[in-house]
Design goal:
Elements (H helix, E strand, L loop, with lengths): L10 H9 L7 E4 L3 E4 L4 E8 L5 E12 L5 E4 L13 E4 L2 E4 L4 E8 L8 E11 L11 H11 L2 E10 L4 E5 L3 E4 L5 E11 L3 E9 L8 E11 L3 E7 L7 E9 L8 E9 L3
Parallel strand pairs: 2-10
Antiparallel strand pairs: 1-3, 3-8, 4-5, 4-7, 4-9, 6-8, 9-10, 11-13, 12-13, 13-16, 14-15, 14-17, 17-18
Length: 272
């Protein structure tokens, strides 16, 4: 994923959109995604502050637009076609003061308008530190920017409001094996979907058994979502892959028993 369209002040938020926790951040939030529906009208988020001093956080709802690379940009002018859910749920409290290592909960309650068409609607619940930060006047501009960035770490958790029982069909494009800026192997491919539900799942990459060698996993990528008909995915591999046959699976991230396969690709991938 690229960072180029994310404003500097929200750079940490970009990572936290996926993980709700990052090295150096003092706020942890669980779960990492919430789904509200007629059957599940309430939900609860658990907050934990891991710093050594109390911290206060303001809580609000925001909307992020996903571009074709999968990068997220916070916006205020939202098209109805993007199916925003900003006003479709209530939450409390709206501000918290967290004591180190003590958990606190935020409760969400569905407030779904009547007459909505079937489909997934979405927003993010956003946690931002409220303390004012004053940088030392003697700092360089770069240091001031980094100081503010670290001081205003925020967390954004996606909230999906599901109306009816929407479905989506998911397909994976042919992956290419490339290398990132650090020289690490990455599978780049398109995630395509048709339907009114938003794709969400985990990616697993496996090299099939051959020549007497057992099947082996070469990568795992958790909690990948798509809010577009087509978006690019860059899947970093954990084990060396020299090209050749590979099986890429996109699996449900929830449910009991073996996860359902949402989409898969099996074929040859050429080394670049």
């Amino acid at each position: 994923m690229r960072l180029v369209r994310v404003p500097l002040i929200h750079l940490s938020v970009f990572f936290l959109l996926m993980f709700a926790e990052v090295a150096g951040a003092s706020l942890q939030v669980f779960p990492l995604r919430v789904v509200l529906s007629e059957k599940e009208r309430t939900a609860q988020l658990t907050l934990r502050h891991t710093g050594d001093k109390p911290k206060s956080y303001r809580i609000s709802t925001v909307f992020y637009r996903m571009d074709e690379t999968g990068a997220m940009t916070r916006i205020s002018e939202i098209s109805p076609d993007e199916r925003p859910a900003i006003d479709f749920f209530r939450f409390s409290p709206r501000q918290v003061k967290l004591t180190p290592q003590v958990e606190q909960t935020v409760r969400l309650v569905l407030r779904q308008p009547a007459g909505l068409q079937e489909g997934d609607y979405r927003a993010h619940i956003y946690f931002e530190e409220t303390e004012d930060v004053v940088a030392d006047e003697g700092m360089s501009e770069d240091k001031k920017a980094n100081f503010v960035l670290k001081a205003r770490v925020a967390v954004a958790v996606p909230v999906i409001v599901r109306v009816g029982q929407p479905r989506t069909k998911v397909k994976l494009g042919v992956p290419k094996l490339i290398y990132d800026a650090e020289g690490k192997q990455v599978l780049k491919f398109d995630l395509l979907q048709e339907g009114k539900a938003y794709a969400y799942g985990d990616f697993v990459a496996k090299v099939p058994a051959r020549a007497g060698k057992p099947e082996r996993s070469v990568g795992l990528m958790l909690g990948v979502s798509s809010y577009r008909a087509k978006r690019e995915v860059r899947f970093p591999l954990k084990e060396k892959f020299d090209g050749g046959p590979i099986r890429l699976e996109y699996l449900e991230s929830h449910g009991e028993g073996s996860p359902a396969v949402l989409a898969e690709f099996e074929g040859e991938v050429a080394a670049q």
